[in-house]
Amino acid sequence: MNKSIKAIVVGAGIGGLTTALYLHRAGVEVQIYESVKTIKELGVGINLLPHSVRILWDLGLQEALDESAVRTKELAYHNKFGQLIWREDRGMDAGYNWPQYSIHRGRLQGILLHEVKRVLGEGCIHTGMHLSHVEQLNNKVQAYFIDRNNEHEQLELVESDFLIGADGIHSALRKQLYPQDDQPIYGGRILWRGMTKAKPFLSGRTMIMAGNIDEKFVAYPITTPDHSGYCDINWIAELSVAEAPNRNDWNRLANLADFAPKFQDWTFDWLDVPSLISGAEYVYEFPLVDKNPLPRWSFNRVTLLGDAAHPMYPIGSNGASQAILDAEALYLSLKENQNIEEALFAYEQRRIHKTASIVNSNRQHGPEIVMQMVHERAPEGFERLEDVISQAELEEVANRYKQIAGFDKEQLNRLEMKAIS
Question: What is the pTM (predicted TM-score) of this model?
Answer without folding.
Answer: 0.93
